[in-house]
Queue: 4 jobs
Job 1
Amino acid sequence: MSQTATILVIDDEPQIRKFLRISLASQGYKVIEAGSGNEGLAQAALSKPDLLVLDLGLPDMDGQQVLREFREWSTVPVLVLSVRASEIQKVEALDGGANDYVTKPFGIQEFLARVRALLRQAPAGEAQEAALSFGPLTVDLAYRRVLLDGEEVALTRKEYAVLAQLARHPGRVITQQQLLKDIWGPTHIEDSHYLRIVVGHLRQKLADDPTQPRFIVTEAGVGYRLLGLSPQPQHTVQRCSLS
């Protein structure tokens, strides 16, 4: 990874962003800034940075949530930079997908060394697509939106989670147990009726006939898979919450 890499800094403190911008730019990096979680996720989807520097104390959403949402569609390295120094917070962030964790206050030389290390580890030229299209159906993982024939479909969080999981593995069968574990938790892996109800609602909202499915196929006794065209990038302009 060359030092022309793009680094996205998500931090609500302007003085910290300025300090990092100057320090990183002096090393030849291109720096993009965001002062909130929602803005940071939008910038990540649009600019496709090579590294994300993430504060946990953001004004609109917790940085741990930003990390979880970012990891739904991107494997770009994440360096957490936070005043939170407890072992619990560090473990949660690292388990949630962070690649490194630096506490504030911090030494800039150590910080820059960690940036260089993460950029060296990042696969060169890796494409990160935030939105996937399957014929008339688009699942935008970065903005958590679903479009059908260009019109937004209002989904509950569970409905979106099931569809997003299937979209991340197009054409592959995802078992009922895996979906239940990932979305409802390990204590619900036998509660298949939860999943059947959600899939039924999804099919209604997507006008998907289970006897002649356009999108969601049931593999009897096993799980579900998503039909459609090969994933293609789509561009979105607005982030919105689920119902």
Job 2
Amino acid sequence: MRLALPALAAAVLLALAPAAPAAGAEGFGPLPPHNPYAGPDGTATMHGDTGSSDATPLPGPAAGPLTSHRAALASACPTVLVGADGYPVALCTAIFGLTPTVHLLDPATGDSLASLPITKGSLLGGVYAYLDDRDRLVAVDGGGSLLRVGHHRTATGAWQLSVDSSLPLGSALPSGDAVTGISPDWQGRVWFATGGGTVGTADDRTGTVRTLPLPAGETVANSISTAPGGTAVATTHATYLLTATADGTPQIVWRQPYDRGPGRKPGQLSWGTGSTPTFFGPRTGGEYVTVVDNAAPTVSLLVYRADSGAQVCSVPVLKAGGSGSENSPVAVGNAVFVASTYGYPYPKLPEGAGTSVPASAAFRGGLSRVDVRADGSGCDLRWDTVVRSAAVPRLSTADGLIHTVLRDPVIPGTTSTSELDPYSYAEVDPATGRVVRTKWLGSGFIFDTLQMVGSIAPGGVVLQGTTTGVLRITNG
């Protein structure tokens, strides 16, 4: 997923043990394998884990009244992660000055305990990052350095953020290019992909950096995913699986092109897939890789075998609402969920995004579920419905619900959007696509979740980034 900030900001962008599944909750199968170099599953990356499942073993808020609190950070906060110590860490971009800033948040309130600005750079500086196995935020700053940012107590007991280590990627990055997505592999190297289409590995234990340029004309507009079998990267033309040689040099295992359509769709930020590739599967959690293409008029969910790249299926989705998605699929076991962003009114688009095809569209919303058949012979569309999701949904395997935020029209029954739109936290039944609970959060621009991801933290707490800070949603 990529994010757009308001015009003033420019475009940028867990009791720790899982609870038992709720009575009657659907058994989805395993999450992707735990990465030993990343933080807790469900909260270590923007998309939950390094496989980008957008699922979590933690439950959301329990039954009963809900409350919400807005931590006003004067920043758009697309990345809110939670370490093994229970402290949330957010990577935000300040509205004024567009400076990427790391915030350590109070687990009890969501308010900022400490902050640390990092070097400003590319469009996606301040978006993609992850927590390592020592609860340090790992990101590449605007100067092209791989940072590990830790949080520590001072002598007075106050919290402080500091850059614990820094590795300049230097000449490994082509001139004028910048890192879009990062993820650790199972050898402790950090994989990265640049907007211009270079894939690389960086080992900050040895200082070794190795790169591989992908075919000319292919750019990377979303993050990347890692599993024991390799690293998945989706460009604006194709999906790749890569591995590394002994010295860390990336090599392509397979490449699968997809239908990128006649142009960028309204509600998307680049001409191509809006997906961060997702690893999933019923046995190991990593047998398959999935993305959504950009075909017109109807996009399709594409599922590949992770080991060979063989296509399992191509299923048209999001037919009930607008058919286009800037969001990564949610996938666990045999089930995949795709949310529509078609027509979403981003206040600002990335430089070079170009005119969409068509030039404009209403935001109707949509949500589809596709199941891979048990024998792997294909896939079936289980349901397709209209849900006006304004965030990347998060599936909890503990409570058996999909958690998201809805953007409703000010005038009920219409598809209009305005700066006065109300936003509501919502829970969706994955068996039917039906919304089963909502909680009004607020109205207007300051509550816009801008298709950003919410994280479920210990204790049934949802932390949701907005254009101006972070919402904390829990039981009253």
Job 3
Amino acid sequence: MSPEGRLIVVSNRVNLPSGDGEESVGGLAMALAAALKAYSGLWFGWSGRTTETFTGELHAETVGGVTAATVDLEEVDLDEYYNGYANKTLWPLFHYRIDLAAFDRAFDKGYTRVNRRFAATLAPLIRPDDVIWVHDYHLIPLAKELRALGVKNRVGFFLHIPWPAHQVMINLPRHRQLVEAMFDYDLVGFQTAEHQQAFEEYVLNEADGEVVRPGCLKGFGRGLETGAFPIGIDAEDFARMTHSSRARRMRNLMIAATVFRHLIVGVDRLDYSKGLEERFLGFEHFLAQNPDLRREVLMLQIAPVSREAVEAYQEIRGRLDALSGRINGEFSDVDWAPFRYVNKNYRRDELAGIYGAARVGLVTPLRDGMNLVAKEFVAAQNPEDPGVLVLSRFAGAARQMGDALLVNPNSPEEVADALKRAIHMEKPERIRRWEALYDGVQREDVTAWRDAFVAALTAEPETARPAMAG
């Protein structure tokens, strides 16, 4: 990256962190802010507000050393692009929930329209030496739209969610056009090698593609660099946060609330991909199979409500309300209940305190690009008496965190057995597992992720874009 060049980060939403611990669940905003603090540049995206008519007017602000340029969208954009194509079509499909995917041409048109509007608004801000880093499934066609406007800069794309298997991807109408648009990027990054390989498989089968060399594909008559770049957290900062007054207060509150019972904690955005129903059933099975341990545990599930305009999210909330009521109705006593289910956001420093009080971190998504909650849980533990991480095999984080207790979240028996093992685990084994996990969380942190991707994006290409000889 040249000294004159800036890093321009583009994402659907721009959420500038305040830096005081107030941010709630969700790691993307923190990761992007950390990236921008190390490079001069700006963060471009949707403001989160709607306007009657799209004008392309930019709103600029600087918070915590990060400069943002945002634009308002129309209500129809929100309905068709965000609630529609992004979250009713791509999100369920990429998480293997074809049964929940809605295929509507109006959604497709809205998705194309907003990406085109983003490109038209962003293009005048781009300088010749700038490097552009586009994030996530909302903006897959953005490079194509920028190229159409004459942008020649290096443009990279990072997918934070899983890339689905070939036979899943072809359920998407116009899937070929969507993937072809990705070849307007110089580099496409995935969370894991598995997701990268699934993308390669699609290109080989649907675009008469070939692997020119490891990490370099040819398809649609063009070349594309790909790679796996597992995202991390700022581990040292999160560990320091556990010593803040608010974190200590929350930790003490949780210890008092559990009356020195073993706390099992889960923290997830309310989403069907997070395996919450399966997790509740696993905990219910644990209580049924271990009557001697019932009064020894308390499970706390924090699940902030999201995407309330999408029907599938309304339905899952109703099912979880019923499940949590059933569990407490069956196993509670007059002086004790085993389960607390909370639909609200907490500050990151408060979550650090909650994690630190837990004997078990229960992170069991059905499918996840990475899952930063697993890494935050590890970073928040007391090195002298750490808790145990129970982690889904289907989270991207499982590839890095083999010293967790890995489970199939679809099996209540496996989840229940892992909970029992975690609660009974002796301190020497807990310390050994935690030390290995924390070492990985520190080494493979957000800085390593950022630097690896930016270095790959700004490296001299071995072959010119967009065409590849041979």
Job 4
Amino acid sequence: MTAFDTIIIGAGMSGVTSARMLADAGRRVLLLEARDRIGGRMHTDRSAGFAVDLGASWIHGITDSPLWDLVRTLGIPTIEFTVGSFQAGGRPIENFDGDGDPMDAEATERWVADVAWADLALADEIARSAPGDTYLDVTERVLDRSGWTPERIDEVREFFRHRVEEQCGAWIGDLDAHGLDEDAIEGDEVIFPRGYDELPQRIARGLDVRLDHVVTRVSRSRDGVVVSTDRGDFAASHVVVTVPLGVLKTGAIEFEPALPEQVAGPIARLGMGVFNKLFLQFPARFWSEDSYVLRALGEAGEHWHSWYDVSAVSGRPTLLTFAAGPFGRYQQGRSDDAVIDDALASLRAMYGERVGRPVAHWITHWGDDPFSFGSYSHLAVGSSHRDHDALAGPVDGVLHFAGEATWGDEPATVGAALYSGHRAAERILNRPIAMSDFAGRIAAREQTDTD
């Protein structure tokens, strides 16, 4: 059995980052990936002749972002699209009230002010929350003392619920009261017209990547590890496990000996959310040319609530909406036609018969994906931010974990995946690695390949 210095399990953003850094340091690295492609939850469909990001889409805040610096160093084009953080205002948004009627400027201004007041009050309520309080508990306490009409309360209640769904893929009653504490966005947000998975693909060029290798077992001792797959066993001194939290929670990978409480506890306590996308491409635009988002508030937006105009990517009228949490799990069990009809009914409640039949669509099913079992991690009731970082290990000096679920500062993001992969490589090498050097080496290697 050929021995490697390090085996990386999973060729998503964290996996390719660790592998690239270790290989650049002269280590013999093997990257095992269960899928037939690189990227993991960064998955771009280009079959229609343009990019459709079925997985990750945004960089959430480019100010002081090493991820953004990496993207710029590699010359990957982006489009500014600053609503991925689920804003109430700040960008052109077409708002509709609980009856599905357009809101005028005065009503919109009041609505934005209501959310601003509630957010301030919510911060105080979260600070006073007790262990076991959910995000639903603290939001309801804020709304109870607002003094607003039932209609205004419903609008803000739905906003909070959908914000949790979009940010965490979870039901608001399953999220810990502190579940959005790390949700600050610094600077603009961007999307990728050529597709986000260009980034991990370029990082992985030249690495020893074995696709279609499903890992079933990781056996460790203080001398190293043996990784068993459906295509044979591989040995190494270290292993970095970067599979999504959803896979770890199912026990699809057996660890021998069993994982210690330091790692097993966070795996059990943290939650894995479901966040599915629905892209609809229309024969003609029926919404304003200037709007980033179409948003139904209150009862009108109970299910399909926010529609993002991503037409700039393809040049064709295209809206993106989301089904997350319990609603997302329900929708992914339905046929495409049923999902589309349901979503169109929501749009027609706002725009009437101007809404034509889509000419193309894309629907994701991340909760059913056997190599992710969900979209990204969240702080379930009973867990804490410390659980994210504790999950990273290491265990017995040879077993490391990386991925968005192992980075407490900003879990559920591509940035978290990048930084956690960086951390794992530094721990194995026992020395720091400058992110600027990492990016520069990738760019220099690509330049050499084209000369």
